[in-house]
Amino acid sequence: MHDRHPTSQLVTNGEQLLLVDCGEGTQIQMNRYKIRRSRINHIFISHLHGDHYFGLVGLLNSYSLTNRTEALHLFGPPMLRDILDMQFKAADTKLSFPLHFHPLGENELILDEKKLTVSSFKVQHRIPCWGFLFREKVKLRKVDPVKAYQAGIPPEFFSKLKDGEDYIKKDGQRILNEEVTKPAPDALSYAYCADTKYDESLIKIIAGANLIYHEATYLDDQREKAIERFHSTAKQAATLALQSNVKKLLLGHFSSKYEALDVFREEAAAVFPNVEACKEGVTYLA
Amino acid sequence: MHDRHPTSQLVTNGEQLLLVDCGEGTQIQMNRYKIRRSRINHIFISHLHGDHYFGLVGLLNSYSLTNRTEALHLFGPPMLRDILDMQFKAADTKLSFPLHFHPLGENELILDEKKLTVSSFKVQHRIPCWGFLFREKVKLRKVDPVKAYQAGIPPEFFSKLKDGEDYIKKDGQRILNEEVTKPAPDALSYAYCADTKYDESLIKIIAGANLIYHEATYLDDQREKAIERFHSTAKQAATLALQSNVKKLLLGHFSSKYEALDVFREEAAAVFPNVEACKEGVTYLA
Q: Are strands B167-168 and B40-44 parallel, antiparallel or unpaired?
């Protein structure tokens, strides 16, 4: 409706792309936005309502038809594996690449890579549903090689400089770390809160995140309907963002009954000013 | 690729719409072409390769979300029911309308309605696959009410006039049917041959059809590949159309490796001139 498509998000971390949910038509939208889909090695499916995963099997199929060989890690509700297996069996499909399925369970660390971690957390929806917290690992200080050289620090000590250590010269002179390095950039975090009703138990999980996405299916005059359907209002999303002390809030999953979306941003901004209503094809920075 | 979408066709018969196959994004395309999807009461799925049915579950979901109440008849490979059941179970979906599933089996009459019949027929593909033959029922002659009235024929005899009977007046005078009626329009037929390798056993099934759709995944210089993959070439499709003495041939299911499609029409036209390469969003008349 109103030219909006079902849910899918790309989380980028350097060269790495992580796909979160995959509604019908996601691969068509990827073509439109010239996404290099071969860079996606991790897919996270929050729950098994169609608007969040009906495009997944087609995407996996397309990877296979184009002879992908790189392993793909898929995180999703346990039943997702059964659904995919049955569809592959019906089509006599043998994927061209290893597909590693990781069933979601409790709140836990589900991915621990060199540059980031991902944790899953349960949210309150009509069926089992998970959110995902993406955290960059603490970054290293940046060495100024010219200053370090002039201070007489050998290159083999640079990795310790990056960790913040001072250098003690042979004559006992201490070179302070901050004289030859620049501070590490902030390690950023992003929480995808999936489809959920307003749930204050999420506060401790997403507290202090640089960016969160929270659904806002309705405006607050439809709060009763939101509760009944395990969804949230824009005001509720903003309230949670405020209580969680996050830096920025993104709203999405707007009911197709609404054509214009500014009202969502306005309702939320009255509670939490640093908020945007997500538009398709736009990149939001943490 | 090349802005082409996976397979789906609408067969129209008067006000009635019948959907044949339903690849990913079909419902989005329906919106684009302003299809009145509520008029679709019959859906036919030829086989369980994704490009022919990955959009089905989303369409059924959308019908339910918009509170459709009218029954829908779904004809497809037996395993389709299991796939849909599992997806509905995972989403805790209770459809708002009755969905009657009719598993495809042998070559048989699968629908017999007031104005048309539909038969299924097996084709030769890598997995079980069916084509569909749509036949209008024999139409009735059209009564000219003024002439019939002038000839002294009472209105209660008009239904027999439509069937072609002469009228015998009380004085024994015979009014010839053709004096007061016009011939019935032709009853049209359309055969959808699905995904198949070249198969002359289809000739007796589709013989004399007004219109057939036959896949042409490749050009004839790729005939070996076509055979290996249980697909056809444009020349093979044309050869079958010629041998079947049909009136018109539509080609489709072109491999995404080809950008321009005129070559398919040209290759086929050398064998069977009344041929078109299907374009999206275009209506072809039988």
A: unpaired
Residues A164 and A223 occupy one common structural domain = no
Q: Does A48 touch chain B (CB under 8 A)?
A: yes
A168-215 pLDDT per residue, tens: 999 999 999 999 999 988 899 999 999 999 999 999 999 999 999 999
Q: Assess if residue A2 is contained within a domain.
A: no
> Which of B61, B77, B86 has the CB atom closest to A82's CB atom?
B86
CA A47 to chain centre: 15
Q: Do B262 and B234 fall within a single domain?
A: yes
Looking at CA atoms only, how far is residue A196 from chain B in angstroms? 15
ipTM of the complex: 0.83
Among candidates B218, B186, B204, which has minimal Cα distance to B246?
B204
> Any idea what DSSP says for residue B97?
S
- Cβ–Cβ < 8 Å for B161, B141: yes
Closest to B196 measured CA to CA, from B126, B98, B134, B269: B126
- Does some domain include residue A224? yes
Residues in Cβ contact with B166 at an 8 Å cutoff, skipping those fewer than 6 apart: B174, B175, B176, B177
